[in-house]
Structure formats: structure tokens, C-alpha cells
Amino acid sequence: MPEPTPLELLQVREQLLAEFAAHLPPGQTGSAEQRETDFLSRSLAAFAIRHLAGCTTEEAAAAVVDGSGDAGIDAVFHSPNTDTLWVVQSKFMRSGRGEPDLGSVAKFKTGVEHLLSQEFDAFAGNAGWNAVIPALQALFRRGPLQVRGVLVYSGVNVVSEDRRRMFDAVKRRFPVRDYVDFVCCSLTTVHDWVTGADQRPGVAEAEIVVLDAGWMQEPYETVYGRVAVADMVNLYREHGSRMVAANIRGYKGNTVVNQRIVDTFREEPHHFFYLNNGLTAYCDDLQVIPADIGNPRRKTVRVRGFSIVNGAQTLGSVAKAAAEAEDGGYVFLKIVSLARCVDDADFARRITQSTNFQNQIAPRDFVALDDQQARIASHLQLEGVGYHYKDDADQTTEDAANFTVQEAVLALASLEWDGTSEQDLCAKATGDPAALYSTEAVYAPPHASRYQRLFRPDRSARTVWRAVQTRRAVVRQMKAEGRAAAAGPRKTFFENARAVVLAVIFVRLRPEQAEQLSLTADQLTAIVDETIRSAEALWSACEDLGLVSRDVAEGVEAYVTPRHFRTVFSDPADCRRLREATLARLARV
Fold first, then answer.
1. Euclidean distance between CA atoms 15 and 250, whole angstroms
2. How far apart are CA 560 and CA 566, in angstroms?
3. How many CB atoms lie within 10 A of CB 94?
4. What is the pLDDT of residues 245-295, one digit of tens each?
5. CB of 303 within 8 A of CB of 205?
6. How many CB atoms lie within 10 A of CB 440?
7. Beta 203-216 vs 279-283: how paired, if at all?
8. What Å distances lie between residue 220 and 107, 151, 285, 422, CA to CA?
């Protein structure tokens, strides 16, 4: 079976067509596919300019100079805000794999050298370049300028060392500090631009007044103290869930604990500071305004990238109650700046985990901190499919356009099976599903925990969603078969054999592997038919292995089992034996 086109590439293609079809001409030569590829390559250059330089779509399209005599440069744009000259080579690769060829990169390198040396005759044969050369000459005459070369392409492979050495040679030739640098943007980066995954959660900028403030400046700058509940509520109402998006859980609504927070604030707003654990936040950077630096009672703090990472329930609850208690109330707030962290993403994750251990947090809640979960959700959101991996007040019904991390975990437990260590994932799906969220090392690296095996970095969002759809079809059919069975071992078989039957279907049909995001009607029919066949083959395998037998008592035939089927299908060794026996039996049919 040929490898399907990456979902990321399909979504990038749709973005480029939607944004630039009205601004850039189609390709002029070759087949229809080649003409579209030429258009998409130029659009990719413009998309990189639009994202990196922060200009409009129209400005980005006007920056494209791709064509004969372009010297390997497809777009050039000067950003006046940062005084940066962006120079782009782009390659749209229809397979979604690979990297730009060495010859194209060498041509790009030479073109950049011509530009930095102001050898504009190298571009004289290109109409687009001729239109911008006078402005570029003026820029170079004027003085200090930053030049950034961008190699952007729609393949998942990283740029090889031989290409990077070319860029390093350019930097050595023009050694002025911060004058020239290069960035390589693969399909992964470009797709992040489409989904917004390159943007951190949180509030871009805010000003917060902290009373009776403490101020630590080493090793990580931190300000803490009392803040007016009204100030935090107003900030929350303005920015909503984005303000708590970095939290393990969003606001969960009217739970028992949250109702107690509401009651406390309504009844004793002036004592709320003493009766509540408060809020913890991190930010990319913080500054105490000069007027408050020497003020021991008050610190007005300007923050960038501000995120509440512990206290979403407090914040959501007081926002609900604040309209009835506008007369006061304070809450404790601690703000940690990540500016001095060597690995700010890792430290931010540690802050979130550590400050949430005081609450009733299950291992499943910590998946909300995994970038893999956010990646899957953002990829599917573009296709109108909602993936819900974080607990909040807006939990959505599992339906044709929505699914949860619980469904994904159970589906992937049957998909992830290499015949050695992973057979226990299928058993855990039946006997101990909570163990599937564990990050404790139980296997050999690189994916040492059960959770890491399920959500490997190379597992696509499309594979996850198709696996979930497959599991739903299997579970529906197994439930129907169970309802039709008489009470006793046969019924408990259909209740507990679902994970193994699903594992067999993944092996035989490979329904998770296809280019379409959703299962077709024919595929669903095939899955239902295979579920019936596989379940009966598995039942026969249970008989062969002595896990179920027929008994006649007083003229009545009945099934008996030495062990309950839940025990059988919760045992990794039994799951492995039964899966292999079932596949062997089906292969003989």
C-alpha cells in the first residue's frame, strides 16, 4: 500500500490556494499538476514572507520574484518595523517528504551572495527583480540592515548538513554580527504557521497591580502578592480560555469544589485571600514599572505571554460570582518570568506539573501538557474535527465530529502492537485503562512508557482519528452481538474481547492507513463484517485453548469458563496467545 500523503501537506495546500489564488498567477508550462506545483511553490514563498515579516497577504504576494533570472531567490521583502530584508527560496514537494535538492540550494546561496555584494546585474533578467532593485540599492546605501535567508519547503525531512554548510560559508564571508543569518522551515514549521501552533498560549501583554508585593530577581525573576479579584476577572473576561490554556485543565464549571469557591467568595469576599490557595502564572518576560521599583507596598508589573498555570478553577469560579460581589476581594498571585530559563518550555511544564500536585489530579490530566496532544487537536481542527484532551466545562459529546483522549487511548492500545512488549497495552485497555496514561518507564527506549508508545511523535492526527472511528464501529457491533447472546460466558465474552478483536482488525484491514480523514461507508461495512468474523474466530480460539467449553447439565447445554473473560482479556500473555491463534484461524479461511 503506497504511503498516504501527509495530512499536514493537504492542509498547507488548501491554505495556500485559499490565500493566494487571487494574488498570484498559475504556472505557465507543463502538465496541470506541474502548473499547480509552480503556483504552490510561489505561494509558499509568499506565505513565509507574510508570516515571518508580519505583512499583509497582498504585500507578501507582491514580494514574489520567482521566474527566469531570479538567481535562485523566489521572494524578497523589506520589513521596515525590524529593518530586516527577508530573502526566500521555496519548494513545494507534493509527496510531503524529502528536502530541496543540492543544486537548488547552491543556486540560492549564490543568489544571496550576489545580493549581499550588491551585484544586482545577476538579477537583471528578471522583471520582478528589476522592479525592486532601486529600493534595495537605497537600503544598502542607507546603513545597518539585517538580512535573513529563508529556505522553506513542504517536506518533513530536516535540511542535511551539506546544505547547512553552504549557509555557514555565506555567514563567514559576511562576518558582521547580526548582518546575515539563515532559517530552514520544513513542512512541520509551515503547518505550525497554518494552525497557529507556533504561538504560545496566554495573554500577549497585560499590566497587573500587585499589592504587598515580594520581588525575587534570582535565579528566575518572580513577583508575588495580593491582586484585586476584579482585576483578574476583567483580564479573564477579556481573554477567556486563552489565559488558562497552559493549565492542565480548563475551568470545569459547576463542580462541588468550584461551588465551594463561589460560596466562599460570595459570603466572605474580604477573607477570600486567606481561604484560597491562589493563582500561579508564568510569563515570557516581566517588568516592574520604574515608579514602583522602590515602593514596598505596590508593584505594577507589565507582563508578556502571561498564562495562569494553576488556579483555573479559582479564576473561573470567581468570574462567575464576581457580578454579585463587586465590593472587593483579593487573591494571591505568583508570576514567574521564563526569560532567564535555558529551556523555558521545559521549565514552564515543570511549574505547571508541580503546582497542580496539590489538587486531585490524575495521570490523565497531565496529557494536557504534552505538545503531541495540542498538535493532534490543531491538525484536526482545520478539518472540522474536535479532539478534546483537556477537562473543562465544555466537554463535548463524542460524535461524528468530536472525540476525546479517552477514545484515542483505547483505540491506539489495540493499534500499537509489535508482538513483544506491547501486548500488555491491549490487556490494559480492558483491565486497567488508567495505566495507559502512565509516563513511567516500563519498556526499552526510545518510547519507554505506555503513554509514549501510544502517542509517538510520528503518529499522525489522521491515524489517530481513523483508529478511533474504527474502534467505534467495532464496539457498536460487539455490543450488538452481546445483546443478542444469552446471559453467561457468551455475553461476557463480547463485553471483554473488544480490544483484541480491534487489534485483529487493525492487522487484517489496516483501516488507519488511508489519505481520507474519515472512514467511507464501504470501509465501515468491511469493518463490521470483519468484526463478526474475528469475534467468532476468537471465540473458537478460546475453545481451543480451554478458556471456554460446553457442558450439558440435565439435558441443557451451557458454556462454562475456568476464569472470567475479564480476567482472560486483562492478561497480556492470554491476549497475545488469543490474537495469534485468531489471526492463524482467519488466515486458513
1. 30
2. 14
3. 15
4. 655 555 555 566 677 777 878 888 888 888 888 888 888 889 999 999 999
5. yes
6. 10
7. unpaired
8. 45, 36, 10, 42
